[in-house]
Each structure stands twice: as C-alpha cells, then as structure tokens.
Specification:
Layout lengths: L1 E4 L3 E11 L5 E11 L2 H5 L15 E3 L2 H8 L3 H20 L4 E5 L3 E6 L2 E6 L1 H16 L3
Helix pairs in contact: 2-3
Length: 139
C-alpha cells in the first residue's frame, strides 16, 4: 500500500527481482517516492520518472493513527504536515536549496535544478527484515 502526502507525493514499496548469480533470484522490497507537486513541475524542473504499480492501493496519510501513535492531536499533526509541505514548496519555487528530512525514511532534496529522494540504508534494511518476518509467519 502507498501513502499519499497531499501536495507532495506518494511513498510506497515495490518488490523487484535481484539477480544473485547464474540462476539465483531474490525478491527484495525497495522504497520509492513519486513526486506529486504540480507546482514544482510547472516551474520547469525535471521530475524524476517514477511509476507506481497499477494495482497499488494508495491511501492518504492516516492522521488518526498517527495521532494515536504520537499522542499529538490530529488537528496539530494535519497543520504541521500542511505547513511543512508549504515551506518546502516555497523554497523550491524560490529556487532555494533545501533538504527535507523524513525521520527513519530518507531525505528529499532540492539542489539547483534537481529534486531527489534518497532513502536511508536503515530504511531499506528494515523493509527486508519485515519481509523476512512476514515470510516466516507465512503471509
């Protein structure tokens, strides 16, 4: 399932084959981010071409669940996310370099004419562990 951050983009994971040798193939989970900022694309910046699988379920960020996990009121979380996206967009529109950190996921950067989402190695490693755990549980 993918998670949509309205005004910014969609985060999800995809499974891809990784060749380990002659006939060995391992399925790995890879995080991806599809930029959804029409403002940025309208600025003439090249947007990285990312394709989400057609059968991918995309859900908006679940502020209620996030509120329960963080103990912050839902309205505060919504306002914080909206304001942060506005701030990032402002920097991009004004051609300012900016790094937007997603805790435990990675960094979305704007530098010059380039937008790039780099995922932390720990995020990728954690995805593989969860997959292994799921496989061990038979799901």
């Amino acid at each position: 399932q993918g998670v949509l951050l309205e005004g910014l983009g969609t985060f999800c994971t995809v499974q891809e084959p990784l060749s380990l040798g002659a006939e060995e193939v391992l399925l790995v989970r890879r995080p991806i981010f599809k930029l959804g900022m029409q403002v940025v694309c309208a600025q003439g910046l090249p947007c990285p071409e990312v394709t989400l699988p057609d059968d991918m379920a995309i859900e908006p960020l679940n502020y209620l669940l996030l509120s329960l996990v963080t103990s912050w009121p839902r309205c505060v979380l919504e306002a914080c996310v909206e304001e942060t996206i506005r701030l990032f967009t402002f920097h991009v529109e004004n051609k300012q370099n900016v790094a937007f950190d997603f805790a435990d996921l990675g960094v979305l950067t704007h530098h010059g004419d380039t937008l790039c989402m780099s995922f932390y190695a720990s995020c990728v490693t954690q995805l593989q562990k969860k997959r292994s755990l799921s496989a061990a549980l038979g799901s």
